[in-house]
Amino acid sequence: MISHPTSAPDTKLEGLRPTVFWRIVDDIPIGLKWFLIALSFLVPLILWWGLSSAGFVDPKFLPSPAKVIEAFGTLWEKGYLLKDTTASCFRVGGGFLLAAVLSVPIGIGMGTFPSIRALLEPIIGFVRYMPAPAFIPLLIIYLGLDEPPKIALIFIGTVFFNILMIMDAVKFVPKELIETTYTLGGRQRQVLMQVITPYVMPKIIDAFRVNMAASWNLVVIAELVAATEGLGKRVELAQRFFRTDEIFALLLILGLIGFCLDLFFRWLLNISCKWAVD
User: Fold this and answer.
1) Residue 228 gets which letter from DSSP?
2) Does the keyword section mention Transmembrane helix (predicted)?
3) Fewer Cβ close by (within 10 Å): the C or N end of the chain?
């Protein structure tokens, strides 16, 4: 007699019964969603407060949340916070905007036309493995110490990843859509501008959202090397004088800026590509 082979896996998967929490793909209730979002912030905050209050760690190494808020107020009163945040945002905005303007047409072109892909993919695939911070000495030699090398560093660190992610998104455009357009009398330009480009727009916004984080990593590195102002420079100055409370405050500001940018890209996706979100 032959036993049925499917009974064993069912027993192993008993712990993952489809409850509200363990839903796959489907949305969870809005109340539970906001509760979990709040929990993701509250748990680290409570752990931080508990560790700093218990006295297990020297306050010089782990300042309390109250000391960090105090440092935040000091930075604001001295005018550093607004000046440094503005400088860093300007550098990230400039470098990332240049990378976005260049990467969209190149990425769509590489994904659409195999000839352009064959021409550019090898060199872009080669250059993207060169760490962007390794270009800093050359950028300083070529562009000096002002804003251009910092903006150029962010541009180099994001443009190649943007291009390849957009190119990959174009590869997944259903061929049926393209064939249907041709069947209905569409021309190549219409396929490119009215089928491929709108189809990959949500992926382009997603690529920007992901690679924006890399821009902020790079601006901090650039400001650590050569800058008189900026959030990265302020972190370096705080480290020099062992002001860990200021370092924590600046890191929280960097995280807050990144979080707001992430929300902005999600909002942009919702209003510009409703068909993809729904």
Assistant:
1) S
2) yes
3) N
pTM: 0.81
Strand runs labelled E in 10-105: none
pLDDT for 153-178, tens place per residue?
A: 999 999 999 999 999 999 889 988 88
Extract the runs of DSSP E, i.e. beta strands, from the chain.
none
In a domain, 184, yes or no: yes
Spatial separation of the C-alpha atoms in residues 14 and 68, rounded to whole Å: 46
75 and 81 Cβ atoms separated by less than 8 Å: yes
What are residue 237's phi and psi, to 5 degrees?
-65, -40
231-237-240-246 Cα dihedral, nearest 10 degrees: -60
CA distance 133 to 143: 15
Q: Are residues 170 and 158 in the same domain?
A: yes
CA pair distance 223, 104, nearest whole angstrom: 28
Torsion angle (degrees, nearest 10) of CA 86, 91, 93, 95: 180
CATH number for the domain that contains residue 139 = 1.10.3720.10
Do 89 and 198 fall within a single domain? Answer: yes
With tokens 């060169």, the residue in question is 130
Q: Is residue 14 part of a domain?
A: no
Q: How many C-beta atoms lie closer than 10 Å to residue 125's C-beta? A: 11
By the 8 A CB rule, do 210 and 165 touch?
Answer: yes
Considering the domain architecture, whether residues 149 and 183 belong to the same structural domain is answered as yes
* Domain range for 38: 29-62
pLDDT digits (tens, 9 = 90+) for 193-232: 999 999 999 999 999 999 998 899 898 888 887 788 899 9
Q: Find how far residue 94's CA is from the centre of its chain.
A: 16
